[in-house]
Amino acid sequence: MNPGLVIGLVLLLWLAANGLIVLAYRRTLGAIWREPVLRRPVLVLESDDWGVGPPAQAAALHDIAEVLGRHRDADARAPVMSLALVLALPDGQAIRRTGQYRRLLLDDRRFADVLGALRSGIAQGVFAPQLHGLEHFWPDTLMTSSDPDVKAWLRQDQPAATEQLPAHLQSRWVDASVLPSRPLDPAAIAAAATAEVQTYRRILSVPPKVVVPPTFVWTLEVERAWAASGVECVVTPGWRFTRRDAQGLPGGDEGPIVNADRSGAIGYLARCDYFEPARGRDAAYALAALERAVAQGRPCVLENHRDNFINDAAVRQRSLDELDRLLRDASARHPDLRFMSSLELHRLLRDRSADWLVASRWRRLPALWQRFRRAGRPCRLAWLTGAALLGAAVARLAKAGGQAPAFAG
Ligand SMILES: [Zn+2]
Q: What is the pTM of this model?
């Protein structure tokens, strides 16, 4: 056979194989491509479930604010912890008396110390409040539950901790009284979203702009209701889970969602990893996540929960020490690191700020290559075809040169 023909056929086969990989993994590759590349390292700490609940939160919040206040970034700004707030718990006594659902709000005198600690950290600039939910559950779901533990939980004297509820019942935006869960009535969703935004605004004196959906189970319908009330940003784990499945696990996922994705008036953030010292995800773990995020040109948005700081005294002290270590080592390793709130990150992504984002396609390549390297199967297949070798070489060239060749923009 003609050697030219053989080379042509091999080349054609090679192109076809790589074309198939692109076709099969277009959603993953599209997500890698469209997510903006940051010009400098950004660290965002998000901690959930604060607000109503155990009084120990007040001292914990003061301690966290003190640790945050010790550090500064390259702009001489202190780190900010974005706190997702829950605004209400069941009023057990009133529920026992009336047989109807009644709530205790965050501005009830029982939570005065917690609210005071929140306000003091906000005034100091180290806390940025965001909405988690009016409740961390759907009240009707709990009220119709036949589970004796849930009934008792609703009717106890002392304000309860929602972490004690079965996991699927901690989802707010589905009816999980049966599994798989059922969607909620659209009118009920609209009314509840409006009510939680109004309650937040009354108690915090500012409207919520960022929402962290409880347990990351929510729907586009819920988002639209938030947007109608002025919410700008929804925090995600990279997916939207729309229901609880037959086992009670989050399911019906829609995505992938990456930073700066949009749907109507809503912009999204995607958490990339965890800082949960109580569960072994300590400063060293979070710093490794930061290294990956920096290499990939992504903001390092870390998930955390109040339970690291409010239960056992030894766990609480260790969490505070790990927080201190994370902030100190992150700044030491990355002198150009910036701390910011989720809302600030959302707005600079939304505005495509030239000061923050890499515009040149050529200069984006090293970060895109690092994302692809961690994409799993498409990357392994690309090594098999040899396309990854080409990708690695181009990424190295872009990183070393910085200057774009004539064909790139
Ligand atoms: Zn939560």
A: 0.94
